Amino acid sequence: DGGITQSPKYLFRKEGQNVTLSCEQNLNHDAMYWYRQDPGQGLRLIYYSQIVNDFQKGDIAEGYSVSREKKESFPLTVTSAQKNPTAFYLCASRGQGSYEQYFGPGTRLTVT
Amino acid sequence: AQSVTQLDSQVPVFEEAPVELRCNYSSSVSVYLFWYVQYPNQGLQLLLKYLSGSTLVKGINGFEAEFNKSQTSFHLRKPSVHISDTAEYFCAVTRRDGGSQGNLIFGKGTKLSVKP
Q1: Residues A46, A64: contact at Cβ < 8 Å?
Q2: B110 - beta bridge partners?
Q3: Which end of chain B has fewer surrounding CB within 10 Å, N or C?
Q4: B15 to chain A, minimum CA–CA distance in Å?
Q5: Shortest Cα distance from A16 to chain B (angstroms)?
Q6: What residues in B contact A94, CB-CB < 8 Å?
């Protein structure tokens, strides 16, 4: 089955620790995206990548970092600099020539 | 820049009643339009999209939407809802000219609550 996987589903961390969220796709999509979702705020773009070894900041990149070393993988690191990291994080991908994005199941991060 | 406004944050409705979820957008260039659905603690699933052609678009689960260019709207409708339609619905746009690099602009979502 083709799709996007995000792991883990739930993640708990102590304040001050960096944490990496995994996103893998086997759809052969070139573009990948990370969004943050908070209640009542919709989806906000953190980072996106159009091709391997290249990525751009979205609207709320501060306190986050990414890498795109492989086409299939786009991990997101939430650093200790992110002031309010508790949220639901969604990864998405888009195929070349296509306009819709396909989403993974999400990771709910709780930092205490 | 583009923006999307979903006019209702919550819509309660009884089972088997019709529903309309409203979406208006603002853009200086032509756009493609999408509706996504999100069930609790899950990712987003594409319901339908408007790229070109007929302004009435049919999607999955019996939903349809109508693109109205003059009113810059893309309202989502279903003639008879089921309990299983309870979810959050997101309207989104992207530029037709590729100027946004395929990035989607989302509305803040509408929570549909279907009551028995």
Answers
A1: yes
A2: B89
A3: C
A4: 24
A5: 26
A6: 102
